[in-house]
């Protein structure tokens, strides 16, 4: 077994690999750019080596620097994680030439499967179901249009060397093919140094199902069941689960058999994933093979009990698999949510900056008495920064339980207690999703987000019982804070005033009237209906004034509510609801009702930068007449190109930005007359 390995990656996956290596008694070496000098993976590793400036092309993607770091530290092997160099044939070859072991598949398998075009040819030869498409060289956008019309719309334009949704576009007509082809080539060149793309038929209402395979250097290959990754935005996975609610035992066996056949055909000898696009009728077609560890690998680990990182290390060291196909048993259900630094209410645009507060849910392993497991894989910490240069992943939250609904409910509770402040994040969206009827029923497709939120995501309104729960929590917090203040010495004795416990709680635009009073270790909340006491809810919590998370029970229901102080009230988040909550005495509420609302400023004539990013191009000039839908500018952020289009007809009055400018969020790009 290896004594020391280097992790050629950063963030949560570097931390994930370090944890397993530490458990196996293996020393670890981290590499870091200038942007990551204070990163968590650097702190966790036994040794760390600086490899260059923040841009990945000058640090994490430079093969020579990784090899030099191995030689300088005596690392015997390299785990590439995912992304960066993980599927680069040249990287594995360079390590082999330097006498360093690559903790991943052999060079031949990477060459065969790492290229999306060649992998489809290999899959067809191995008898795997494939999607109709064109895998040859596409000369230009006119050629792309001709191919798309021969295949039939809609089509998928995809980077041959791509991954993570980059260099990928779906086109429904010839104009979208032309633009999508050019954007895909540009993104592919920037992200992977390879601008080749291919076109294939896009399956309408598809589902994304993948099979985890594991092979060794002795010819043994097994699969560990499937994962479903259909909840996506911009072709990038957001929520994954295992097993899939779509598959039955027969389909699972067929899909697993084909995945193993493909892996054996290319001599695969590590952990890898064979991805399929599946129809609602359980038909399936080969999509691609990822010759690396997947972001979503934890859900497979939790339903099988197999540590995939450990298996990769053991296989790389030459050990034969100790697992047979008959040993693999699927137990329970696992759900993973990717917590991203992005703003879901602004079309999931990236958010960067310092993490002012970071409180992840408490991790725990399931027991016979409480079978729920909660796992958090992260590479960030309180006070750290989300950088412009890398993927905006904050953490992965994984829950496991006996059933799918139990795993979803555990995920919902954990998301409610996942507190991040300082940057925008997608936790409100994830929490909303966990309550969504269609998601809970397992009626999924890769267009789920676009179909369910066609006008963009907006936090759920505070209504019904959830509004009352948030009102109760706010009133209880105010009650506890007042109790604490009254214990300060030197105060006059507080007289009993009839009705002193009555409060009007404003939850968004909804008023909730209630009374609160101490009851043993807890606090009773009486809701006032028609001027009289109605339903009583008993609350109990360990919350103390100033804490950002209210954890407790209301009657028998465990409740977690995030609390951020705002002037005279709180910004509260619970179950996907984000709302301002104010607690008033009756006479205060009367006065508040008479106060006029402050008018919001009009920004309708300005186009603002939706995220911090680099201006790739400005497509208009001052005085130009614009029609709705026309491209105004292209902004690059987190390795993705974002096209800004005109929402309505108009005339450009002034252009403030130019190609190459680095803009902060909400910077003015141009103004309309």
UniProtKB/TrEMBL annotation:
CDD domains: biotinyl_domain. The lineage of its organism: Bacteria, Pseudomonadati, Pseudomonadota, Alphaproteobacteria, Hyphomicrobiales. It comes from Rhodoplanes azumiensis. Pathway: Metabolic intermediate metabolism; propanoyl-CoA degradation; succinyl-CoA from propanoyl-CoA: step 1/3. One of its GO terms (molecular function) is acetyl-CoA carboxylase activity. This is propionyl-CoA carboxylase. Residues 1-454 form the Biotin carboxylation domain. It catalyses: propanoyl-CoA + hydrogencarbonate + ATP = (S)-methylmalonyl-CoA + ADP + phosphate + H(+). Its EC number is 6.4.1.3. SMART domains: Biotin_carb_C. It is an enzyme of class 6 (ligase). Its cofactor is biotin. Residues 120-317 form the ATP-grasp domain.
């Amino acid at each position: 077994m290896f004594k020391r390995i280097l992790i050629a990656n950063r963030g949560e996956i570097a931390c994930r690999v370090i944890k397993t290596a530490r458990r196996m008694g293996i020393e670890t070496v981290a590499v870091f750019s200038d942007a990551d000098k204070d990163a968590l993976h650097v702190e966790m590793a036994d040794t760390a080596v600086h490899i260059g400036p923040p841009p990945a092309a000058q640090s994490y993607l430079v093969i020579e620097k990784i090899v030099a770091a191995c030689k300088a530290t005596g690392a015997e092997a390299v785990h590439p994680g995912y992304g960066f160099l993980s599927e680069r044939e040249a990287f594995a070859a360079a390590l082999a030439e330097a006498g360093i072991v690559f903790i991943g598949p052999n060079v031949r398998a990477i060459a065969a499967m790492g290229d999306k075009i060649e992998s489809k040819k290999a899959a067809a030869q191995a008898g795997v179901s494939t999607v109709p498409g064109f895998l040859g060289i596409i000369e230009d956008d006119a050629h792309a249009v001709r191919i798309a019309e021969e295949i039939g719309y809609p089509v998928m334009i995809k980077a041959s060397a791509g991954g993570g949704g980059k260099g990928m576009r779906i086109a429904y007509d010839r104009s979208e093919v032309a633009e999508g082809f050019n954007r895909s080539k540009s993104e592919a060149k920037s992200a992977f140094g390879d601008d080749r793309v291919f076109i294939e038929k896009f399956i309408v209402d598809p589902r994304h199902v993948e099979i985890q395979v594991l092979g060794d250097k002795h010819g043994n290959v097994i699969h560990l069941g499937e994962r479903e990754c259909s909840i996506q935005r911009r072709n990038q996975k957001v929520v994954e689960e295992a097993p899939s609610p779509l598959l039955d035992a027969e389909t699972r066996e067929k899909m697993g058999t084909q995945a193993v056949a493909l892996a054996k055909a290319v001599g695969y000898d590590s952990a890898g994933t064979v991805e399929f696009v599946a129809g609602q009728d359980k038909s399936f077609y080969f999509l691609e093979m990822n010759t690396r560890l997947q972001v979503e690998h934890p859900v497979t680990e939790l339903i099988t009990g197999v540590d995939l990182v450990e298996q990769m290390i053991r296989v790389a060291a030459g050990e034969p698999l100790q697992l047979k196909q008959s040993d693999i048993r699927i137990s329970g259900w696992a759900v993973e949510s990717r917590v991203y630094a992005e703003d879901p209410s602004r079309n999931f645009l990236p958010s960067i900056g310092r993490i002012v507060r970071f409180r992840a849910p408490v991790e725990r392993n399931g027991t016979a008495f409480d079978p729920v497991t909660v796992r958090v894989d992260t590479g960030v910490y309180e006070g750290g920064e989300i950088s412009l240069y890398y993927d905006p992943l904050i953490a992965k939250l994984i829950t496991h339980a006996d059933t799918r609904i139990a795993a979803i409910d555990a995920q919902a509770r954990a998301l409610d207690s996942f507190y991040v402040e300082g940057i925008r994040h997608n936790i409100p969206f994830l929490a909303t999703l966990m309550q969504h009827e269609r998601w809970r029923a397992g009626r999924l497709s890769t267009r789920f987000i676009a179909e369910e939120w066609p006008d963009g995501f907006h936090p759920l309104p505070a209504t019904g019982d959830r509004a009352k729960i948030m009102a109760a929590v706010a009133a209880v917090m105010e009650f506890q804070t007042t109790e604490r203040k009254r214990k300060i010495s030197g105060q006059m004795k507080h007289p009993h005033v009839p009705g002193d416990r009555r409060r009007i709680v404003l939850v968004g635009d909804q008023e909730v009237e209630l009374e609160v009073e101490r009851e043993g270790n807890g606090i009773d909340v009486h809701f006032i209906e028609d001027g009289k006491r109605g339903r009583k809810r008993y609350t109990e919590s360990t919350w103390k004034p100033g804490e950002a998370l209210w954890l407790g029970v209301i009657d028998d229901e465990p409740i977690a509510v995030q609390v951020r102080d705002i002037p005279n009230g709180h910004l509260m988040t619970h179950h996907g609801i984000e709302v301002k909550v104010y607690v008033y005495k009756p006479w205060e509420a009367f006065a508040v009702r008479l106060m006029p609302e402050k008018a919001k400023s009009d920004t309708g004539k300005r186009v603002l930068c939706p995220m911090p990013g680099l201006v790739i191009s400005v497509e208009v000039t001052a005085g130009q007449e614009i029609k709705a839908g026309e491209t105004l500018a292209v902004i690059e952020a987190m390795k993705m190109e974002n096209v800004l289009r005109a929402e309505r007809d108009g005339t450009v009055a002034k252009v403030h930005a130019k190609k190459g400018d680095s803009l902060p969020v909400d910077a003015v790009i141009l103004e309309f007359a």
